Amino acid sequence: MEYIVEKIGMSRTVDRVSLPVSLLRVISTKVCEVGENNKAIVAYASGKSNNKTIAGQQKKYSLSKEFNKFASLEVANGEIGDQDMTPLDEAKVIKASFNTKGKGYQGVMKRHGFAGGPKSHGSRFHRRSGSIGNCEWPGRVQPGRKMPGQTGNVKVTVKNEVVSFDKDNGVLVVKGSVPGFNGAMGRIRIVK
């Protein structure tokens, strides 16, 4: 079973030892259409504005204006309507998938952890990548060469233990950290 969640932030629980936890708000979703293997199209509310495509989907599934985002998830039961949250009560381990924080275009020292060159005067090699290939053979840059570029903003999936689930507020407390900024939208999948 999968759910759409929003990362609230991090906190700690104190039960004999201090335990870092992440707080995830489970977004209420409506199951619109169910396909094979309990794969379903679900709709949920997001703060973004609508366009004609979304308006057509809302009309097709007779949804209100607030449900303006759609996703494909694996649901517990194949029933159309509100998504069932009872499997989260017994969940022990989840996999959380979020996009990491984007850091923009970065050099090799920040992106790949290169050491750089000597700090003394006149070296002209402080934070650069250095030579990128041999001039004679193969006469080109090899694929996979670590170079400067876009850092972060990639999808990462982590496994976390469930500490507790507050069904009234829809807040899931998981052990450790999950990727992304506070307020980031992602999805969780129950492992066991």
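the 2nd protein, sequnce then structure:
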Amino acid sequence: MKLKKLALVLTGALVSLSLLGCGAGGDQAKQASKLRVGASIDFAPFEFQDEGQKDYQGFDMDLIRAVAKEMGSEAEIQNIGFDGLIPALQAKNIDVIISGMTINDERKEKVAFSDPYYQSGLTMVVRSDEENIKSFSDLKGHKVAAQIGTTGAKMAKEMEGVTVSELNTPADCFMELKAGGVDAVINDRPVNDYYINQSQATGVKTLADRLSAEDYGIAMAKDNTELQQKINAALKKLHDNGEYDKIYQKWFGANK
């Protein structure tokens, strides 16, 4: 009798362990289905959050959700300051970055990028009564605002005789311009255009001069070639099936 009881106890323990193992596996599978995304939610129309809205909005947000869906996953988006995105990726707190991030050689030393998903460029916004600044070559001797950590800030600091204020968000830059603290704002073209058109801003204007052409990419860990391949495949599928164009038209009003 004792042997039978011992056998029953051992069998029950094994069943319990087996069930626990299945539960853990289920949790792991659930976690694996999440694509942890980092973005700086202050870069309309690419990523932003309207007051009263729960979900993050913008071109990047729609695109990464579509990419994750193509991969059989779900995007779990975290709001992280722009200059903290790459450190968060390196610390493995997130899997990818999508935040209007320009592909450049300096960043390639720290992260791997997907194929480009958007081409941008730097433009300028000045006050409507500004007559001395018509192009980037006119900025010498003037004060300029740009978002901290961006290509716009980097290139502005390389301009001879230009005083640069690096501020936290594009909105801060535009406020500084309207307050007279700076003479111009340098930012990515869609951000400037969105500000002018969507906010119905008065007293400012966008100049036609374009400083550079830049490709945006989705960033991931340098050694994660498998994820890079999956994301590139998803982007290609979205281009092929027309979903990318639908997202683009939603935010920019025309095909790329």
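The radius of gyration is 24 Å. The first strand starts at residue 34 and ends at 39.
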